[in-house]
Amino acid sequence: MRIGYKCIVQNVGLTKSKIRKDKKYWVNSADYQSSLEGSFVRLALVATINTEKLHLYTLRKFDLKTGPQKAKKLNGKLLEYIESFFSKPKLIDVFAKESDDAISKSIKLNRSSRLKRLEKANLKPKLVPVTSYVYERNPDVVAEALYRADGICERCSGAAPFYRKSNNSPYLEVHHIVPLSNGGEDSLSNVLALCPNCHRELHFGKGI
């Protein structure tokens, strides 16, 4: 079991006459009757979330005592952990990390095991909804960096590898030297126009 949904509060102080009856989902009828006391909150779904970061066995490391059947007030380490998770600039990074981990595990398998798994694999990948936050970059910074580079990578000095289909311009990618997520500025002094190879190396390479 894991936290699977991110919601916002729509209404508070609702009486039991305003809520949907869900007795059939309760194992203990006494608990159900007890749940009808007091007032209720109506939530609206914002996003469906699927990550091991919010699995119960992970949350227990942050003082979650048991799998909650009812609403639970968050505090202490548990509240701090969940808040920090949802406040990350890009939730999609979590899924990228999990994908990288899965690939690393696959590489460590012997090849015959991997080929057997491929024979049984689903050829239509599952569509997973994610919520992400991205920085709204200044298009003038991008345009001016590309103009400055004039089709030449500002790291390796090689020519752009191909031309864009959309406008026949040399294909370079504008990279922030200090990432925006680390407080870097969206300015000409903090960007380089790079060929895709150099750009990927800066993000994923081991460095020199």
From TrEMBL:
HNH nuclease domain: residues covered: 141-200
CDD domains: HNHc
InterPro entries assigned: HNH, HNH_nuc
GO molecular function, one term: endonuclease activity
Keyword DNA-binding: no
Pfam families from the UniProt entry: HNH
Keywords recorded for this protein, A-Z: Endonuclease, Hydrolase, Nuclease
Highest rank taxon of the organism: Bacteria
SMART domains: HNHc
Protein name: HNH endonuclease
The organism of origin for this protein: Photobacterium chitinilyticum
